[in-house]
Design a protein that fits this description.
27% helix; six-stranded mixed beta sheet; 245 residues; alpha/beta
């Protein structure tokens, strides 16, 4: 269900940005067709980057490649100056809700605890501090009353908040969020927006795939525009009107 394994921790390279992608090409595993071609961009530490583009443009593929979940065909990805996987605890990836098996027999609280595994490994039992971190982020997402509920019994918005709580429990520096606001209720949208604001105030870096173009100016510092007709480019938010998706 989740993919982080052994603890591999390298220190950030001094002066390196949070994320640097150069000439990245990624192909589907069963074909030679490129999903991403010659993608190049940089995200500074503490920035909020909106990843935008039409369905099928490769947003999910790009986030998975950055998270180290997909092999790359060519090019490079550097996270705080290190390749993907060099420091698992520094990167938290939140997939789309449809990618999760919600029939899995686990409670919300235990689901969020899986976000701590990258720090403690799979064999060590959670400490009192681990549980405190989990309970704190569950409360932050407004899910305390649902802690012992099986994840399949949660509403769509509650499931989305539970996934974000898991990412927060990891206490990562770079968060990769794949459409966290897709098809959620107003309460969930407001809670997630506040959490992302708080993360930004703490200096966390956020790369979020989104279709919510109307809120970009309020919630992001730059856009990463994916278009199959040209390479990905990074734009300051005040240039958004000149972006032709």
């Amino acid at each position: 269900m989740w993919s982080y394994s052994s603890r591999v921790h390298k220190d950030p390279v001094p002066g390196a940005p949070a994320l640097e992608v150069r000439d990245l090409c990624v192909a589907y595993a069963d074909t030679r067709r490129l999903v991403l071609k010659n993608v190049t961009f940089t995200v500074p530490i503490g920035a909020r980057a909106a990843l935008i583009g039409h369905n099928g443009s490769g947003k999910s593929t790009l986030l998975k490649a950055i998270a180290g979940l997909l092999p790359i065909k060519s090019g490079s990805i550097l996270i705080y100056g290190n390749p993907p996987g060099a420091c698992h605890h520094r990167v938290a990836y939140l997939p789309q809700r449809s990618d999760i098996d919600w029939r899995f027999p686990i409670t919300l609280r235990k689901l969020v605890m899986t976000g701590r595994y990258v720090h403690m490994g799979w064999l060590r039992r959670p400490s009192r501090q681990d549980w405190q971190i989990v309970d704190d982020v569950i409360d932050q997402l407004g899910l305390t009353d649902l802690s012992e509920r099986q994840i399949g019994q949660l509403s769509g918005g509650q499931q989305q908040r539970a996934m974000l709580a898991r990412a927060l429990a990891q206490d990562a520096d770079l968060l990769l969020l794949d459409e966290p606001l897709n098809a959620v209720d107003v309460k969930t949208r407001d809670v997630i927006a506040q959490v992302l604001h708080d993360l930004n105030r703490r200096g966390k870096t956020i790369v979020m795939a989104t279709h919510e173009l109307s809120t970009l100016a309020d919630e992001f510092d730059l856009t990463l525009s994916l278009n199959r007709q040209r390479p990905l480019t990074a734009h300051p938010i005040d240039e958004l009107e000149r972006i032709n998706l």
